[in-house]
């Protein structure tokens, strides 16, 4: 049991470094010196955020006269307005405030006294 504790304590610095995203000495690639103009730098990599985009498919346009005739047959814009009014919640007036908010001191333009 005692040896497990020693192993656990030995791993604490490594674990903290791994969790913090800090490279431990001797692990991982070394970064090039930022002040050295001749330092080898890996090439910049870029990928388009739209690379995986898939189009939804072709939309088949319909004849505008046929669309207008369909709307007329249904009842026109009034039918759509009736549907919207039927699904909207009833408008009830908000209850009036029981007492007005007291004026803030030092704000005479709000009804309070100047100091």
Account of the 3D structure:
With 115 residues, the protein is mostly helical. The chain contains three helices and no strands.
How far apart are the first and last residues' alpha carbons, in Å? 74 Å
Mean pLDDT: 74
The largest β sheet comes out as: none
| Distinct helical segment count | 3
- Which residues form runs of ≥5 with pLDDT under 50? none
Strand tally, please? 0
Structural class: mainly alpha
Q: Topology of this protein?
A:
Elements: H1 2-20, H2 64-74, H3 77-87
What brief labels describe this structure?
about 120 residues; mainly alpha; 3 helices
Write a compact overview of the structure shown.
The chain has about 120 residues and is an all-alpha fold. It has three helices and no strands.
């Amino acid at each position: 049991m005692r040896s497990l504790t020693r192993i656990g304590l030995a791993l604490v610095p490594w674990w903290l470094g791994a969790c913090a995203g800090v490279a431990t000495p001797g692990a991982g690639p070394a970064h090039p010196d930022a002040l050295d103009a001749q330092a080898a730098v890996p090439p910049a990599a870029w990928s388009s955020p739209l690379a995986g985009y898939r189009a939804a498919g072709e939309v088949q346009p319909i004849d505008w006269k046929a669309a207008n005739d369909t709307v007329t047959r249904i009842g026109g814009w009034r039918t759509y307005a009736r549907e919207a009014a039927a699904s909207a919640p009833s408008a009830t007036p908000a209850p009036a405030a029981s007492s007005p908010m007291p004026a803030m001191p030092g704000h005479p333009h709000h009804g309070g006294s100047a100091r």
